[in-house]
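Colleagues,

Please find the record for the two-part complex below.
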Amino acid sequence: MELILFLVFAGIAVVAAINVVVQRHPISSAVSLIAVMGSLAVLYLLLGAEFIAAAQVIVYAGAIMVLFVFVIMLLNAGGETKAGRSFVASLLGVPVLVALLALLAFFTARIYPRDTEVHFGGFRGGTAQSVGRALFTTYLLPFEITSILILIAIVGAIVLARKELE
Amino acid sequence: MPASPIFNPTDLIRFLPEIILTAMGTLIMVLDPLLNRRESKVYGTLSLATLLAAILAAIYAYSDAGPAFGGMLIVDGFATFFRVLVLGVGILTILPSFSFLKRQQAETSEFHALLLFSIAGQSIMAAANDLIIIFIGLEISSIASYILAGYLRDDKRANEAALKYFLLGSFATGFFLYGVALIYGETGSINLSVVHAVVTGPDAPLPVMVGLAAALMFVGLAFKVSASPFQIWAPDVYQGAPTPVSAFLSAGPKAAAFAIFLRIFMTAFAPIGHAWAPLVWASALLSMTIGNFAALLQTNVKRMLAYSSIAHAGYVMVALASRSEVGIAAAMFYLAAYACMNVGAFAVVSHLSGKGERYQSIEDFAGLAQKQPFVAAMLSIFLLSLIGVPLTGGFFGKFYIFKAALESHLVWLTVLGLLNSAVAAYYYLRLLVMMYFRDPGEAASSAEPLTPAFSAALILPAIGTLVLGIFPGWVLDFAGRSASLVK
C-alpha cells in the first residue's frame, strides 16, 4: 500500500517538476510547481513526518506559491519568447543530464548499503508535539534568533519601498 | 549534541552582547515616531552607546568563558576577539556617518537599527560553534547588509549595488546551505565539535562526501569574504553603496565571515586539511593578483579600495592556507589591522565626496594636504599601513602572515604574495602623491570643515593602526593564546 502510494506521488512529483521547466507560460509553471509541492507533502507524510507535511502544504503550496503567482501577475509576464538555442546545448543537454543523474544514482547506491535505507513507518518523531519540543528546548536559540532575521526583512522592505527620503 | 534542554543564566550572560544589540536596535525603531525629525542625532548617539555597552558585555562574558546553549555558542578568546572587532568596526562606521547622512539628508532610525542588527549577526557568527547558528548569523548579517547597500534608494548606483549584492549573495548562501545539509546527512550533527569527532572517529563518513561538503561551504564563504574566484560583486557593491556602508561592508561582515571560515575549516574540516589546502592556496594567489593588478587601473577611489580589499582577503587566505595555529593568530591580527586602516581610508572618502557623492575619483584628492592637512595626514597613515610600511599595523599583519606561511613551507605562495605587495604600493602611493604634490581642485576646496565626531572617526583608527604597528605584541599575544580552537 505504502509502496504504491509512494510510486504514484513520486511519479507525479517528477513529471510535474519536468513540466515546470517545459511549460512556456509562467503561470503554467507555477501551477505545476504546486503539484510538486503537494506530492512532496504526501511523501513526507508517508515517511512519518506529519508536521513537515502540513507545513509543506501551508507554507510552500499555500503562501509561497500565492506570492509567486501575485508577482507573475503584477509583472504581467507573458509566455517566454524563444531565444536562439545554442548548438552545443541542444546536442549535449539531455545526454549530460542523464549521465549526471546516472552517476548520482550509482554513487548513492554504492555508498549507502541497503540496510541503512529509510523504511516506511520506521520514523516516529514527526508529530507537531515532538517538533515543538525540539524547537523550544534544544533548538531554542536558533528559533529565537530567526526572529531577528524576519524583523530585518520587514524593516528592509519598508526602507527600500518608502517613497523618498525627506 | 550535549543537550541542556532549558537554558540557564550563564547562557544568557554569554549571549549578552547580541541581546543588547537586538534590544537597542528595536528600541531605536520604536523611538522614531516619538521623536522630532531634528533630533535624529539621537539615533547615532544611542547606537554608539549600544556598541560600547556590547563591547563591555563581550569582555565580561569572556571573564567566564565557556559554551552556551548546549554547545551551540562558544565564548572563547577567538569569539571575544572577533566580537570586539566587529563591534569596533560598528563604532568606526557610525562616527563618520553622522555628517554623511546629514549631507545626503538621509538620517533615519532604520539606518542605525539595521546596522545594529547586522552587527548582532556578525557577533553571533563570531561565537557560533554550530552550523545552524552560523547560517542564521550569516543571513542576519548579509540581509541587513544588502539593505544598507541600497539605503540611498534614489541613487541608481546604490540600487544596482544592492540588487547585485542580494542576487549573488543569495546564490552563495545556497551553496553554503547545501554544504551544511550534506554534513548533517553524513555525520548526523551540525555541531562543529561533534562533526570533528565523527570525521576523525571509527565510523567516519567517506572523505569524498566530507570533501564535497567542504567544497560547497568554501564557495559560500569565499563569496562572503570576496576571495577569488568569487569576488566579482565586490567592486560594484563597494562603489555603489553609501561610503560609510562600503567601509562597514569591507571590514565587519568580512571579518565575521573569516571568523567562521577559520572556525569551520580549522575544526570540523581540519582532518581533511590536505584536501582543501590546494583550493585555499589557489584562491589566495588569485585574490592577491587579481585584486592588486585590477586596482592599478582604477580611477575611482572607492573602486580602487574595493579591489585592494579583494587583495587583502587574499593575504588572509594565505594565513588559512598555512593551516596552523600561528596562521590563525596571524589572520586575526591582520583582520584587526585591516579593519582600522580600511575603515579609516573609507571615512576620508566619505568626507571628501560631497553631496550626492560627486567627488570619488583619484584626481579629486589633489591638494588635500594644503586645504585640510589633518585629513591628509590621517589618510597617509592608512595608506602607508595598507602598503605595509614598518611602524604600521599593516606591516606586522603581512609579516606574521608570511611568517606563518613559511613555517608551513608555503615558499612559493610567500614569494608571490610579497611580489604582490610591491605591486600594491604603486596605487596607494599614487593617491599620496596626488594629495601632497598637486594643486587643490574643486573637491578639496569645497570639503566641509571637520566635526568632532568625524575627527574621532579618523583619530581612532589611526591610533589603532599605529598601536598595532608599534606594540604588535599586545594584540598578537592575545590572538596567539586564542588560536587553539575547541575541537
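Chain B has a mean pLDDT of 89.

Comments are welcome before we finalize the supplementary table.
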